[in-house]
Amino acid sequence: MTETAAPEPLDPEDEKLITLARASRARTGAAEGAAVRDETGRTYTAVTVALPSLKLTALQAAVAAAVSSEAAALEAAAIVTGAAEAAEADRAVAADMKTPLVLLAAPDGTPTAALRA
What we know:
The protein is α+β, with helices and mostly antiparallel strands. The protein has helices at 12-28, 58-68, 88-96, and strands at residues 2-4, 33-38, 43-47, 49-50, 55-56, 74-80, 101-105, 111-116. The chain has one domain (2-116): Cytidine Deaminase, domain 2, CATH 3.40.140. A hairpin with a 4-residue loop joins strand 4 (49-50) and strand 5 (55-56).
């Protein structure tokens, strides 16, 4: 995946993903929030999972929710994080799902970067 500046303006559906990811993160106080949109337009959200026996990034957890609901492909994803760049695990799961666009956003919702397949 190639990292570039986030597109301006964002598609309204992509803005929605950032809003959903941000809300999930804020509601739980997690380090990260993520939202994905599958090929049918359904959205799934998740936050970082940090248990002694299970550790998932927010994007990994959102992808797991989508896949467990029979999503075969993703149209887009968003990660709200304080990190400067996407984690290698996030890049890997996005590549696994052939996700064409992963948006990174700061905790305030400002898009900071885009990963493209």
